[in-house]
Amino acid sequence: MSPLPVLLDCDPGIDDALAIAYLVAEHRAGRIDLTGVVCTAGNVGLEDTVANALAWLDLAGAPAIPVAAGAPGPIAVPHVLTPETHGPRGAGHAELTTTRAVDARDGARLWVELARAHPGELVGIVTGPSSSLARAVALDPALPGLLARLVVMGGTFRGHPGNTTPVSEWNVDVDPEAADRICRVWEDARAADTAVVAPLWCGLNLTERAVWTPERSRVLLAAADTPLTRALVDALRFYFEFHESVGEGYLAQVHDPLVAWLALHPGSEVSEPAHVRVECTGEYTRGMTVADVRGQRGRVENAAIAIDVLVPGGPDAILDEICAAISSLAASPGWPDRVGRPG
Ligand code: BDR
Ligand code: CA
């Protein structure tokens, strides 16, 4: 059986970096085919998300996959940067460099081309704002029907508080119009064809349970002391400091690798179907993901909302697996013979 084709759309970002390293590990182990990476402005500006993605792929020894620059900012509002969360360049205390080149295609174009190259097979993972994906569905409205599934880190559900405003999660808050466009497009696609799979929305209600501790960083370094793990640990130290500064303790909620893992393990989540829209106008509620789980709107379900994981040990056990996958990179054949060479 050929490995599962996967596209990651990300905004690295410290927890995005863990997702990248994990996906490269799965690729090198032959379990997935990481067909491309789209970078979107989010945690930092587009230039930095691209440079960081290239550098993390380099450090992880990824093959020469296309990495494309997507949306440079949100649809309707200026892009507001928050360097206190992921550091001024998006990599915390890690210093990244790369010689890997960016693909000439626009990120939205890469979404479309990879979906068309793997009709019904591609797994799309979004760990940043939906701005590039919103452009991709404008470019090719057939996109929802071409994907095997879409897994999004975004929003917050079931009354769980936001991390950006009291009701909004960062990725959605950056570009609510884009996230809402995704909801509308999948609603239309599913109204026309019930075979189209509703995206899995993984919100803070679940992802905040993925907690990376200093002890886990020690375990990672003890298992594999490499340029990749040292850079991840340096980046994570900044993320610990950020979480401590907002009263969460000296730890880090690592949303994105959990979502990447869920994307590769369909059926490992507990979810509920819903009709989701994103509030784009409310003075106090902009960026809120509003889920109708009772069918009160009478609309086609356009989302599955992740509620829990069906894994003994929960998100912590999943992080154990991710940690092991990343440390196994050092032992994978050809590593660290990297810098853009097919692996
Ligand atoms: C999301 O926001 C970003 O800061 C993280 O990378 C994650 O994707 C969590 O709200
Ligand atoms: Ca992210």
UniProtKB/TrEMBL annotation:
Keywords, alphabetical: Glycosidase, Hydrolase
Gene3D superfamilies according to UniProt: Ribonucleoside hydrolase-like
Domain Inosine/uridine-preferring nucleoside hydrolase: 6-309
Any matching Pfam family: IU_nuc_hydro
GO terms of molecular function: hydrolase activity
Organism superkingdom: Bacteria
Family annotation (InterPro entries): Inosine/uridine_hydrolase_dom (IPR001910), IUNH (IPR023186), Ribo_hydro-like (IPR036452)
Xref: PANTHER family: INOSINE-URIDINE PREFERRING NUCLEOSIDE HYDROLASE, URIDINE NUCLEOSIDASE
Protein name (Swiss-Prot/TrEMBL): Nucleoside hydrolase
Organism field: Dietzia cinnamea
